[in-house]
């Protein structure tokens, strides 16, 4: 993040919560916040026991709260049983909210479709019955590769109703990424759509599934169920492929939820790490559900008449916790959007907020930054042209929000009346960890402020010792929490190594650098590992490097991040070809080829923004690539550090030239 370090040094504006936000809020003052923190500190077990009993519907109550006997493989509420879908749907249908709208779906072309909790439950049950008839049951794994739709939520909920563990693959990921996940997770079911529609364009999905199958390794998959979104053409394998509407046809709208153990894997979601292979982050049922619900109540101060809108895709953790699970468990009415913020124009978000009277809006800094630019270029699409008076809370997620974007969000979108909750968390944490509470926490632009009650966040040095206030260090969580990652699917060793390095005394290592100010506020400085954050999406530099070197023309590649005004960070690739270093038109042609290749290997989000060709890469005499140097070169800055240990200093000159 470009300005994080400067921000913590110069940012001194403080915005206390407006009185209207505190009145009647779930946590309405700093005193109320501190009281909860103290409760968790003094009686950790009792605090979580109370939350789990008050917030979840159990089919079999738990007796033990936390089992640490096999740390770091923690177990929460281990002997309890419940069903997540029953907690998201049946609870409201039976509790008098059957006819409340659960989802307001807006398609790319603006068509709106509303579904009540009763209808949603009916559709989830029909599909669950259809899946049951096909032989799917608790313990099976399903890959979901779908566009933003009511159907995607229905499929996720139908899986968990049966105890089928799902793994959602973002629709923007390539066939290759899809295939790797199908294989790694051992899926027996794939649910997809014929095509997705975004920004007025159709993008094929089912054809990518065909490509994935052609790559091999997918033989365990018995069925591919296809949601017909557009009617676009696709190959069809008789006996394997089924239309979603055929699977649900004639099925009953009742299906008993299958109770599962609290620790039953609810889902597996892949995320980038510092090696080439993405990690399958495994989440448990009860603890995850509890935290996604509780954070919706606390961070978004959920109220019965809210219209809540999280703009994430269900392919990311944000779309799991804050679309598919938390808001439903809280019984909210939420907007689900198929399209993109800039279609038909850059006023789309504001127009939707005005039309649906959205009260709670949760988006990413990268979207905010691009809309700042867009509305400057086309003032007709600026927020002030729309009636945004329904808004009450604004949220930010995915990367540090720079103070300029924060102030614009605050003034132009929030009319200086809506608290901004800058929520720090990760795929692995399951839900918010460090965030302001809209009715309690005074905010500072660029800081995610303070940890939620029960979350033991701290900043330590490489020995695990607390660092002094004002000094930077590793962000850790000292105690387990219910929604924490349980394992890396199929790789417990990597789980231990990545998150619980022995020198850090058993603390959970987040992988971010951070600093606290005099008020104890956290300021996130960015990743400490080889992970980039591009538009709020995590990308491993090694992942992009392996994609590049798998191209027949490439001998060697190194990838680093560079601060970017819009996307936060941008991918810069330094490439050595097997043949001669290309120049001019040839260089441009090869660069395009490599970009397309990376899009095909991983997905378009991983495409390098900038490619530089060299005859070699800067290496130490022992042959190590000097990434620190490459980061300087990527920014276009002059290399001031000592390069005398470099084997080949003249290479830097070549690598400073973008194609
Ligand atoms: C990484 C996690 C959290 C869901 C979406 C991304 C960065 C996330 C913030 C924030 C500063 C943030 C961190 C983190 N990050 N939110 N509010 N302020 N940085 O989940 O893909 O697992 O990425 O995103 O670097 O480690 P993810």
UniProtKB/TrEMBL annotation:
Q: Which PROSITE patterns match?
A: AMP_BINDING
Tell me its EC number(s), please.
Answer: 6.2.1.1
Span of domain Acetyl-coenzyme A synthetase N-terminal = 33-88
Secretion signal span: none
CDD domains recorded: ACS
Keyword entries, A-Z: Acetylation, ATP-binding, Ligase, Magnesium, Metal-binding, Nucleotide-binding
Which InterPro entries would you find in this protein's record?
A: Ac_CoA_lig, ACAS_N, AMP-bd_C, AMP-bd_C_sf, AMP-binding_CS, AMP-dep_synth/lig_dom, ANL_N_sf
Quick one: which residues bind Mg(2+)?
A: 549, 551, 554
Q: Where is the AMP-dependent synthetase/ligase domain?
A: 96-481
Q: Which Gene3D superfamilies match?
A: 3.30.300.30, N-terminal domain of ligase-like
Detail which positions bind ATP.
398-400, 422-427, 512, 527, 538
* MF terms (GO), sorted A to Z: acetate-CoA ligase activity; AMP binding; ATP binding; metal ion binding
Gene Ontology process terms (BP): acetyl-CoA biosynthetic process from acetate
Give Gene Ontology CC terms.
cytosol
Pfam families named among the record's database cross-references: ACAS_N, AMP-binding, AMP-binding_C
Nucleotide-binding keyword on record: yes
Q: Does the keyword Lipid biosynthesis apply?
A: no
The catalysed reaction is:
acetate + ATP + CoA = acetyl-CoA + AMP + diphosphate
SUPFAM superfamilies documented for this protein: Acetyl-CoA synthetase-like (SSF56801)
Q: Which cofactor does it need?
A: Mg(2+)
Per UniProt, CoA binds at 198-201, 318, 535
PTM description: Acetylated. Deacetylation by the SIR2-homolog deacetylase activates the enzyme.
This chain's function reads: Catalyzes the conversion of acetate into acetyl-CoA (AcCoA), an essential intermediate at the junction of anabolic and catabolic pathways. AcsA undergoes a two-step reaction. In the first half reaction, AcsA combines acetate with ATP to form acetyl-adenylate (AcAMP) intermediate. In the second half reaction, it can then transfer the acetyl group from AcAMP to the sulfhydryl group of CoA, forming the product AcCoA.
Stated name of the protein:
Acetyl-coenzyme A synthetase
Q: Which organism is it from?
A: Achromobacter aloeverae
The lineage, from the top, is:
Bacteria, Pseudomonadati, Pseudomonadota, Betaproteobacteria, Burkholderiales
